[in-house]
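Try it yourself: sequence plus NDP, in.
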Amino acid sequence: MSPLDEKLEPIYAEVLRRNAGELEFHQAVREVLSSIGLVIAKHPDYADQALIERLCEPERQIIFRVPWIDDKGQVQINRGFRVCFNSALGPYKGGLRFHPSVNLGIIKFLGFEQTFKNALTGMPIGGAKGGSDFDPKGRSEMEIMRFCQSFMTELYRHLGEYTDVPAGDIGVGQREIGYMFGQYKRITNRYESGVLTGKGLTWGGSQVRKEATGYGAVFFVEQMLKTRGLDFEGKKVVVSGSGNVAIYTIEKIQELGGRVIACSDSDGYVVEESGIDLDLLKEIKEVRRERISTYAKLRKDTADYVPKGRIWDVPCDIAMPCATQNELNGGDARKLVQNGVIAVGEGANMPCTPDAVQIFQEANVLFGPGKATNAGGVATSALEMQQNASRDSWTFEETEQRLATIMRQIHDRCAETAEEYGMPGNYVAGANIAGFIRVAEAMRALGVI
Ligand code: NDP
Ligand code: 2IT
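Structure, out:
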């Protein structure tokens, strides 16, 4: 990776010192800092009053114990987190992740990314992330409910529609948001719909929120393809993961005439050359909550299952990593390039390692970074907050239309900014710079706080 600007090097060194061992956070900070050297050269005032140092330090970090009782009557202890990164643009906003790998560094990287992503949407939302090292796999419905209630029993005091508004992420979908909203409502005696997003349609949720991250990611890639006169029609696509983001990425690609031939979970991947059967995938993942190997078993005449293995070995025109951070490395990127990939869109947060990103860019592959490509989820969360505030609800068509417009605007903002700074086609630089400028201007206006 290119060296940092000399003004930014000591800031990064201090981030490393102060957040020792938090590798994902270091990675996310370094990527943003490596893009903004040119901005500081052009507008040195953006670095005044330790603005960048403040931007790299969360405004508030909450860590708490989450005790709960499992089905055997045993007391279990997990750790809960909420990192409130930046509220210059609006109330803290960002998802909650329940996964055994969760630790402070991971939540910090996600909160940092969220700050720039939310800025890019152009909506009035600050950046945050939270979650727990709780592992929902193999837990019963009642265990999940008890965990969510205990988690919210502590977190509720830090939330509010004008303070901090969580949503879902890995391991947290509408079911978990429901249990947490129920507990929040019970404790506070307030039906405060705008305190959580990703709610169900009958209790304050928005049309299209469930689909939004995946649909938005596909809209973003569609815009990138358009700059080269291309589209999804007839393209072979590989989508990693098989959770919320992956499923609705697949749905929209199919609607646009693309053929998704592979998807995965953390146990392995499935390949079906004629195209993944989305109804079956939804039934297995959303209803039965089973593994992707079940899909392969049920389609044994047409689908192959590869346990473990690298899904990026499957030749495709377009790759959309939609599972987790650093799931696509330099070796995977080289393989994709050898196999002729033309576009890569990050549905997940930071799924491509820095060397993978560099390989794509050097090979002139269209590359959409997560903080732009997957911003449709949080943007639609902001639309949910807007509907909650006005006690209104919009139709699916209207909401999807708004999402499509927002994604086009994000695309154009990134493309125009990259061009302005002399890096045409570099969506990573465009996203980092455009997001940074919006947050920096608000922070300057609000003074040293
Ligand atoms: P889900 O929990 O619905 O699905 C996650 C998927 O990724 C599952 O298939 C899971 O497999 C796989 N996965 C998770 N962790 C790992 C791991 N360590 N190694 C391999 N595979 C893994 O989550 P989402 O679909 O909501 O989130 C996916 C990604 O998208 C995350 O990076 C998230 O931060 C990002 N994102 C989500 C948004 C949203 O609105 N939900 C918005 C923007 C970004 P398994 O079941 O085996 O664990
Ligand atoms: O990473 C993300 O943008 C999310 N998990 C969604 C956040 C939100 O508040 O909708």
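One thing you can check immediately is this: The radius of gyration is 21 Å.
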